[in-house]
Predict the 3D structure of the following.
Amino acid sequence: MRRGPLTTPANKLSDVERQLIVATVNSSDYRDKTPSQIVPLLADKGIYIGSESSMHRIMKSEGLDAHRRKSKPPTQRKPMELAATGPNHVYSWDITFLKSSVAGIFFYLYFVMDIYSRKIVGFAVHDEQCSELASQLIDDICKAERVSRDELTLHSDNGGPMKGATMLATLQRLGVLPSFSRPSVSNDNPFSEALFKTLKYCPQYPSKPFESVADAEAWVIKFVRWYNEEHLHSGIQFVTPGSRHRGEDVQILAKRRDVYNEAKSKKPQRWSGSIRNWGHIGEVMLNCLKGKRTSCNKFAA
């Protein structure tokens, strides 16, 4: 077993020197400053009581290394928990970049998804990001989906188009409640992030940049049609978002359950337990409180 040194290091601070450092960093002149600021300020006065690293080490051992400024860093509370028990209860939206054929120039894809059904309820492609274009898209979607006042919550991140005056005024006029992620926390908007990954990693995604807004829009139309009506979404029991949005998933899942029950009744020896769970997901959660639910999808009773 290795043994530590038997002698005291020659450069070790004495108890008096340690007490002087503690008293200095807690003094009215320096209690709001960090060692990186205290050391040069003392040097300007012709004073040296220890190195910056020594101050850090002593402050840590004395429990003095907490935030030292009067203005504490803002605490970021988790966004409110949102529950969708049917279509048009909670939408998630965001903007992603689409490469153009000109280096450094991008097109912007505005995507709005219903988290209950995962259906893309609306989109737009523009050559700029702005609150006015986003608010027009939301207005059009609410009309097309016949969204009633005080029925819908719209969740997004903290980008300019999301929190612009025009967008907030439009939401107030439509009776839509806004909800926002914490700054720089992508996990607070997981449905939109997952949608963008599906978009850009699907086999159909073009290998070459888009030539124009019209070119990008034409491709996105095809993607949305595939995603809504052909794509079997794993988060909603492998039904299409379109069928779930229309309420057809209940019958689809019931039929699958019947098929499995019949197969089990014919050859029960092949089944060691219950059949696969084809239950209908009755509630979808956004920003579940930690420890409250083991899953953000809740099966209907």
Summary: The chain has three domains: 15-61, 82-231, 241-299.
